[in-house]
Amino acid sequence: MSSSFDRRLSALEAIAEEMRLRPFRELAAEHGVPFEELMTIFEQAKAETARLRAQGLSEDEIIRRQAERVGMDPADLRREADELQARFNQWRAGQCISLIGDA
Fold first, then answer.
1. C-alpha to C-alpha distance for 61 and 49, rounded to whole angstroms
2. CB-based contact 38:28 (threshold 8 Å)
3. Residue 13: how many CB atoms within 10 A of its CB?
4. Roughly what angle, to the nearest 10 degrees, separates helices 74-102 and 2-31?
5. Which of 15, 14, 8 is nearest to 98 (CA)?
6. HSE (CB half, 13 Å, CA atoms) of 29?
7. Which of 20, 25, 75, 96 lies 20 to 30 Å from 90, alpha-carbon distance?
8. Which residues are CB-neighbours of 24 under 8 A, at least 6 positions away?
9. What is the pTM of this model?
10. Cα separation, 52 vs 58, whole angstroms
11. 3-state secondary structure of 103
12. What DSSP character marks residue 33?
């Protein structure tokens, strides 16, 4: 009995992990960047953002600093970040609905 439960749990965990990573895989493919490289960049950016937040910087200040670092207008960086976030949220919602519909 426990073995069957463990297999089911492992299968569900694998599905959840693939759902979490799929948007990143698609983004990497769209831009011709190796998946592992994109994930490294993402993890570094996430750590840097957490570090800046811990220093008490606002989201606007973080965007301004990052935009300056990469030579972008802060409004353009904000727009790109918002579009990417909306895309990930939409994709995840669609996938959840799809998975529920397949059940």
1. 11
2. yes
3. 10
4. 140
5. 15
6. 6
7. 75
8. 35, 38, 39, 42
9. 0.69
10. 8
11. coil
12. -
